[in-house]
TrEMBL record:
Family annotation (Pfam families): Thioredoxin (PF00085)
Gene Ontology MF, one: protein-disulfide reductase activity
Record protein name field: Thioredoxin family protein
Domain Thioredoxin: 22-146
Record-linked InterPro entries: Thioredoxin-like_sf (IPR036249), Thioredoxin_CS (IPR017937), Thioredoxin_domain (IPR013766)
Any Gene Ontology biological process: cell redox homeostasis
The species this protein was found in: Methanobacterium spitsbergense
Amino acid sequence: MKKILLVFVVVVVCVGIIFTISSFQGQNNSKQLQNQNDQINLQWNTDLNSALKESQKSNKLVFIDFYADWCGYCKELNKETFTDQKVKEKFDQKYVLVKINGDMYPDITSKYKVYGYPTLLILDSNGNEIKRQTGFVSATELLNVI
């Protein structure tokens, strides 16, 4: 009986050590990913009217990311697509960026007929829709749209 108890304790300790080591490695990986994401710093506006005025002054189009806090694909878009260097370069060259939480701004969401998240819109400087993309897109797919 003592041998079985000793074996059980050893197994529990080993599992605990393995779990601790894997958790530590996961934290390091997430810190490295966070550091990479910090290097891709997009300047998002939250006020559409200000973005439209900036668009008129800079002669750029407006790119809107309609999102919701509860939207899994929106989070994935932020982590995977908007952190791509080529996407950032294209955004910097051609667009004034706007993020709109559709749950907080139903009037804008309704105006642009946004029915699902994420919805990405490209507008001219007068607020007229040029292109629309609904749902998650990879960086490569987004580069084909923008």
